[in-house]
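Exercise 4. Each item below gives a protein and its sequence. For each, produce the structure-token representation.

Item: Glucose-6-phosphate isomerase (Oxalobacter aliiformigenes).
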Amino acid sequence: MNPTNLANTAVFQKLRKHAEKAGKWSLKELFRNDPGRFPAMTLTAGGLFLDFSKNFLTKETLLLLLELAKECDLEKIRDRMFEGDKINTTEHRAVLHTALRAPRYEKVLVDGKNVIPDIQAVLDQMRRFSEKIHSGEWKGFTGKPITDIVNIGIGGSDVGPRMVCQAMRSFHIKELNVHFVANVDGHDLDMVLNRVRPETTLFIIASKTFTTLETMLNAHSARSWFLNHGTIRDIQKHFIAISTNREAVEKFGIHHDNLFPFWDWVGGRYSVWSAIGLPVVLAIGYNHFTEFLAGAHAMDVHFRYAPLASNMPVLLGLTGIWNRNFLGCTSVSVAPYLQDLVSFPRYLQQLEMESNGKQVQKNGEPVTYGSCPVIWGNVGTNGQHAYFQLLHQGTEIIPVDFIVALSPHHTLAKHHSALLANCFAQSEALMKGKTADQVRADLEASGMSPQEIETQIPQRTFPGNRPSNTILMNVLRPETLGALMALYEHKTFVQGVIWNINSFDQWGVELGKVLAQTIQKELENNISEEHDSSTSGLIALAKASRK
Ligand code: F6P
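Answer:
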């Protein structure tokens, strides 16, 4: 059973004691003393290679972390997820994004019903629909084929498909432009509407609940814009929906034939594998989408069956637990050295922080140890010229996940060796640092005066000892991206299990939504509710500016 208070368990205490020793280690020395460190702390799965050797870990640390995983029943809870048990206990739902990428012949039961045939039926629907769009058989109200897709959604109904479409730029079907609108800020929709023509545009209204304020407002505004050009009957040619809420979709005026359903056991941030992935299918074609699913499935199989000690998501998750709970790191920076993964850190922010940004355990007890760290980052090498200064010499230790492909999609060979060199150099520099003696030797060689050298040394010294992971892939393709995303989904799962958190609800976003409704009424009507003086003052200023 998962212990009621993780921090009181014997293994947690052992890890704490062990961390006191680790505080005195030097990463450089760990490498010097163990020539087998790299092979022992690297592994391959799903076409990805993980090097976690540049972390403050020894074999003993790993054994203790694996003991912690056992103590928390990781294997049992993992199996329950794959088997369709209702592990999302606050919403009484199964958690089955893994079923969305399972092969046709698999059987996964929810309430005694095999969900695989329904999943495959929707995939077939997506294939047929995308073929009609790509071939030009699907026509807009003036008889022209569709040239622009506008996905209207937010959170999981936006971030995943948007990131994947961007990441798969090299696989795009050129004739089709795919746009994303998420923000309730009207500038977002306005910008896209200014670029597209109603007769050749297809709107996808993507919302699991079909009640999300931002999405519904954007959807209604898009519909009004469309109706300035087409008729109510033409809506069927230009609006489709992806949702679990059939009734609300039909009320909006979208025909049930144009609804791509999914199910309550697909969490928003885990939904790109479902019909929510339709923009991806339209952007890269159905076959590439199935490769994307297959890549994720390969990682699922590895996560489900590989022993914990050689299980990539488990080791990535446990390394994060070690950094967070025993070495005190409060944030993690993600640095894809891949321009096409520019939105990957943003995707991970929702995945990890909405899943594990919790302060209450599954049993209702408070969490008395750190849960999800802040996830942030940007593509390399851009980040190097912005915040890497803080990673190297700041007062916080921030572990970094470097992600890079060995081969690019372009032919600018020199660019790629520069990119790889920078990626590898950053992890080396973070680990090794630069000692005062090295700085002195360099400055002496440059001819600087001894007095100036002494004032410069503290500024130019790098402490080093800053941990990182490096994830390599041969080339960023649909299947490697699928595997990478599944790797992080399962890492998030592993950490949620250790923290005894329900990673699949998100009650924390509700309060702001409710308060926004009250304030919107105040802004639009002549009414005032009771607030603190700051909120009331801000509302008054906004009202005054509208007069
Ligand atoms: O931000 C809360 C949230 O519920 C996310 O989890 C979800 O992905 C997003 O809103 C959008 O929800 P929906 O798909 O129902 O519009």
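Check: DSSP finds 22 helices and 13 strands in the chain.
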